[in-house]
Structures
1.
Amino acid sequence: MNSGRFITLEGTEGAGKSTAAAAIADWIRQRGIELLITREPGGTELGEKLRALLLAPAIDAPVPKAELLMMFAARVQHIERVIQPALDQGKWVLCDRFTDASFAYQGGGRGLGAQSIEVIEQWAHPDLQPDLTLLFDLPVDQGLKRAARRSGPDRFEQEKLDFFSAVRDAYHQRMQRHPTRIKRVDASMNETDVLSQAKLMLEPLFVD
Ligand SMILES: Nc1ncnc2c1ncn2[C@@H]1O[C@H](COP(=O)(O)OP(=O)(O)OP(=O)(O)O)[C@@H](O)[C@H]1O
Ligand SMILES: [Mg+2]
């Protein structure tokens, strides 16, 4: 039996992750592979409630450590209830954001650093890492413009450019640290070209 693959999509706001996710899912399913598409924070009833709390602009917004722990609370629920069972059944899982996003947003953007997140990661999911992560990379102002055309700003999108620059830098650091797993997609290109890049990077996963 073909064993499952765990693929994650990362990148700053409006980079085109969710747009590409739908197209990538179609493309993988066309090969006769059973694939689950999901997102973080979210993917479970509890996770979606935490997502709403995390994204809604709030006066009593979560402090950075609370934000990090809420992300991981949603994540472990998602892993144990949805992601791991699907992988165990041989399904492929495509997840819009995962733990690299915590390193980027809470580690980089919020300034918590990578070390504390590594400790939590080791405890929360010691045995699960994506087989492949596509990092949708583009200048933050371009992404924010795209995101602004889509909808009003959520709590993260209300942050200043400095925040997103720190997030992008932290994503680049993740890529340097995990060059085999994390592949960069030039997200400034049009949707067709972005998808072509993604397909090239996904191709090796189809080899047993
Ligand atoms: N390659 C592209 N070129 C131009 N516009 C794009 C491209 N990909 C997506 N878009 C548009 O940009 C907007 C943001 O795209 P999308 O929602 O896929 O980004 P995202 O990375 O999922 O953002 P977020 O991090 O906020 O979830 C959408 O309106 C989408 O139609
Ligand atoms: Mg999205």
2.
Amino acid sequence: MDKYDCTWFDTEIDRSNTNAIKYNSSKLNLTNGVSPFPQDEVIPMWVADMDFRIPRQVSEALHNAVDHGIFGYSAPSVNYFEALNHWFETNHDFHIERGDVFPTPGVVFSISVAIRAFTKPGDSILIQQPVYYPFERTIKANERNLVINELVYDGARYTIDFEDLERKIIDENVKLFLFCSPHNPVSRVWSREELTRLGDICLKYHVLVLSDEIHADFVYRGSKHIVWATLGSAYADTSIICTAPSKTFNLAGIQSSNIIISNPELKRAYAAELDRTGYNEVSQMALVACEAAYRHGQNWKDALIEYLEGNIQLIEERLAGMQANVSNTPAISLVKPEGTYLLWLDCAGLGLTDAELNQFFIEKVGIWVHKGITFGLGGSGFMRINIACPRSLIAEALDRIERGLMADKDNS
Ligand SMILES: Cc1ncc(COP(=O)(O)O)c(C=O)c1O
């Protein structure tokens, strides 16, 4: 079995001219022309893909498929389902029946299919903001009623306001709950107690749960991800579990996801809606990459998590140092991440408006992070930073942040 160490993830890879959204998209919109950083030198740390090369065995499997040279209509083989089940059994104690799997080209696509399969226009769908913004966008695009249960921030950590959630479910007659687990962007890995309490409320009011678990494999020391369906048969029976190899193995451009539904009635409704989209064959490359990743990717993934923990440690240490050097109160503090590679920075200490905050990061610091307000209610004053990149880039970003804070202090 292949071994991976830091050198795999330390390698800086040039992504220019590779159609990478992270590097190409909206470069021209980045600045208003006053930034001291040439546009190509603003470090992109926003969209959620990684700057790491995929596991060697996945590349080889894709190479072999290319060398074979035929790209006809494709369907997943027994081996595909075996690899998927093996991964989830080994990593998450989750057994997946082959007949419960819908291979699809992406989680957002699959959420949209679920919204149409299980709700009608005007029906209420609940989400917990701040949250991955396509949740809100997809609900609105499908003309459903958006209901928000805002997460509670105590200055260090996020929790759920269960009373508010239950009241809104009753008042708005909520039909579907789009749940993010682990949570992007507040990087919570929900505990069994939290999941069960949520589940019991949803069971009580017959709310269907779509659990988006695309970040399931990114969990740090001290936390454990629990697949919603493993809470018990009642919870499994009333849920749709969204999984994908795309975040774990950096395969977003390959477009591969697997949606797990065990309730036969829900399966029929989902299959019918999938049919209506006209999408019925998974891309050959998605099948090849997904199977190889789940079959051979364990060592790579374990090394990746260790590497990301190193990145997090560096960020924690340096931000603490900046607090001592630049200001007595933390101008920027990190919401301690339990999972995901998307870190949530509390920037309230800077005392800037959201527009000024964005300008600060792009023009004074020279890094391109995601605006907190993009993630909805509760996002104001925060920024989301993607740390799935070589440590050298993290160190450079931290140097820039420190210089930006120093310049700010000197001007005040
Ligand atoms: C919670 C969550 N769901 C879904 C996605 C995107 O999934 P896909 O690319 O499969 O549509 C992301 C990407 O960042 C995400 O964070």
3.
Amino acid sequence: MPTARPLPPGHSHSRWAVLVLAASLASLAGCDRSQGPDPTLVEYIDTLAAVDAHAHPMAWVAPGQPPDTDFDALPLSGIPGFQVPVGLRPDNPAYRIAQEALYHIDPTDTGSVYVEALDSARSATLKEKGTGFASWALDRAYIRYMLANRIAMGSGLPASRFGWIPFEDALMLPLDIRREAARTPDTQALYPLEAKLLARYLRDLGLTRIPSTLRGYERDVVAATLKKQKDAGAVGLKFEAAYLRSLDFEPADSGVAAAIYARYARGGVPTHQEYTTLENHLFRVIARDAGSLGLTIQIHVTEGFGSYYSERGSSPLLLESVFDDPSLRSTNFVITHGGWPRVRETLTLLNKPNVYTDISMMDLLAEPRMLVDALRLWLGEWPGKVLFGTDAFDGGAAQGWEQVAWVASRNARRALSVALDGMVDDGEITPARAREIARMVMRENALRAYHLSLP
Ligand SMILES: [Zn+2]
């Protein structure tokens, strides 16, 4: 998730502690489903070396150097202030638990004592680990390999531990974006970031402006950029389109799209309908090229963020016509964040052979029982389609990306333990199968979905 803004105080208890305690009490009381999470299964899952299928790790920045700005194509710091769910707020107690585990911060510290202790412990660790900080953070969360959603990779993110997922929305937006941007106060801030990114992609290709024909654009900009990214180590691609527009990329007539492109390639502002037609066409062009390069596509599908974010426009089912396009069947798609909270819609799409989902961010914001329920819903039918992910983002010293990764990893593993343990208790699977599914979710499904073999 893009970086959020500071928020009002949230709640003050660890929701996970309550769920695990409830399971233990049920066990003590000899209730139905009385086993609680089997401690050997919990321990097994807690220490599985995972593949994190979606995150925003920060690059190492030497003292005195400018800050890392490549961690997201659409950082939300420029849009009007907005609220985020309690699980994402920096004052959530979960981050204090991470700070105790990672930096030995006394959980009873408060006020300036706490702030100074955290600042100095974290700075000392950053200094001591240096370019090894990010790999250290992965080790602490039992993450073997992390897919890094970044504009570009950076120092301290070695290919042995991090796979690159660049952003492609900008490639759908070659024409003047002013009318699209004017739609909401959020989009006013976000579209210019895409225009800036496209300019960077053009510069990287040695171009000063877009070609005059759509055919030329598809070849010399779209295909050339994807090829360049693949050659530079990309293992997948990311779309954040739901922050900009509805996810219904309906089929578009290529002749009509070409005419729209030609009309405005050298100036002028397309109508919303014209731009939508061109975007719909280009989305599928990018997806087709991605498939031929073996690059899996991540699509942001969830309930936010921003106070003008279109919830109706980010429904998983809107993607069905893309998933059902026969020419895109060799492109793998991942519905990131599980399409949360529309997990039942996501379920209906997992029967498409090339569609997967990940639990990134769900393991930070979803109510714990609901995350367990979502896992059981999906794993009962499609155990090969569900991927672990954290969405680790950087929210400053008190919510560093390394802490977010730690929290999400812990939450995800606990939910998976409770879900699989329940499936064993209910006689759906054997204990051995539970461990097998745990390995699939934490690691193997991601390797298959992204055509990866670990370095
Ligand atoms: Zn993200």
4.
Amino acid sequence: MKHANVAFFVPMVGCPHRCSFCDQNSITGESGIPTPEEVDKTLKKAARELHGFSEKAEIAFFGGSFTMIPRELMLSLLAPAKKWVDRKAFSGIRISTRPDAIDEEVLAVLKEYGVTSIELGAQSCSDEVLEKNRRGHSFADTQRAAELIKSAGFSLGLQMMTGMPGSTKELDVLTAARFAALKPETMRIYPALVLRNTLMAKWYEDGEFVPQSIEEAAETCAELLNIFELYGIKVIRLGLHAEESLEENLLAGPYHPAFREICEGLRFRKKIAPMLTRLPKGSYILRVAPSEVSKCSGQHRSNVEHWLSLGYAVKVTPDKNLAPGDFEVMMANMPSP
Ligand code: SF4
């Protein structure tokens, strides 16, 4: 078992206003807030099932702005979670909130209730983009909150959105670099999608906003993956989860259930291009770590097809002596070493 989150969604509760892109109910497929009894019951069942794997399991409260919900409600949800963490059934509690909903007082409360990781919906480093999309906070708020979270000893996660109205590829890349400088442990990257009943949907319908294509979003996100890898920051999510309610409410935008695979394939294609295209056209064997054969071949073998269109017939083969990220190219008719 790699990692298991037992996640509770607290949609749209606590948000002081509505961001241009947000329709939490269709993103999460949930519309109600869990009761403390439901949290307790779910955790009890999960604790039984995860017995022996507690260090790999976290309790998560995602959705709205968790630290902005009425304090009594927040504590009533955290109390059963803390109980199961104290019993060592889970390694910790993860919450997500807004940068302007963090201060020393709330951090002290979260610590007391066993919260270990805090994710901030930070979205962009551009104040113009944040303002246009009705985020209601600035990049300075993100910097200040990140600093407070880290110095209070929590694990920090940041979420960013690419291709938002008012943004550009250059601004998205700058955002990634500025977010990486805040040294989060984890990142989530979501390309902007146009959902029904949002302000962004209105802009889209009025012709004021054209969302990115899947190819454009993948170009940007492949570059962001390189930046975060360079800084040793784990990207734990790229693109929204496939949910029936999301697909039903999606009007436009770069959504694909295998979006990360597309981005990873593109990264590999770009990495190999300088070496491959210097060689004479012909047939080649490309050796990669066994775990990277599918990534290297591209989604539905798109990289293999791409290379073929350039005159290179490439056969991707696993080599257990190679580390992930490494590769070797040799002519197909050469004897193996
Ligand atoms: S703060 Fe988050 S949950 Fe609230 S409206 Fe904005 S995106 Fe939605």
